[in-house]
Structures are given as structure tokens and as C-alpha cells.
Amino acid sequence: MFGPDYVQLAVDLGVAPERIDTIIAFAKAGEVGAKTEGSAESSTPEVLTEMAELVTTGAIDFDIAATYPLDRVADAFEELEKRHTRGKIVLLPASSP
Hints:
Layout: H1 4-12, H2 26-32, H3 45-57, E1 64-69, H4 73-81, E2 88-92
Parallel strand pairs: 1-2
Helix pairs in contact: 1-2
């Protein structure tokens, strides 16, 4: 979950705090007893390899809001800071089309 309002919404909807995880709302998580693990604990090479395989095979799918070449990383962050994207913002290696 992204922000404190969504953490509170989950609690209000009856989601058990131990099932709530946020990457940004640390104070609210502390208030309600939610997790703040984000992806740090899950970003192992094994997990990332498995995720890549699931995406490659089509087992999981997600929306891509925009793509940017690496030399436009500042533009990608500017888009991200608007907080209105629907989907992921993807940075492309220099060799990508």
C-alpha cells in the first residue's frame, strides 16, 4: 500500500494489520501495527528470477504507464512524482528500442 490513507482504509475494511504492508507510510503502520517490509526482504536474486519468469510466461501481467530510456531517468521520476500514473513506469536499457 502506498500512503497512510490506504493503510487506514484497509484497517477500516477489516484487514488484519499483519496482512497490511506499506513502502512509505511508516508512521501509520506503527500506529496500527502494519508491516513496513516493502520489497527489501523480497528482492533476492531468486525471487526476482521467479518474478521475471512469471512475467515472461504471461502468468502475471501488469499495466505499463510509460517507458523511458535511461538517459531520461529524470523525466521518469518527474512523472512518478505526479502520483497519477496507472501502471508501472519502466526504464529501458540503452540497447532497447
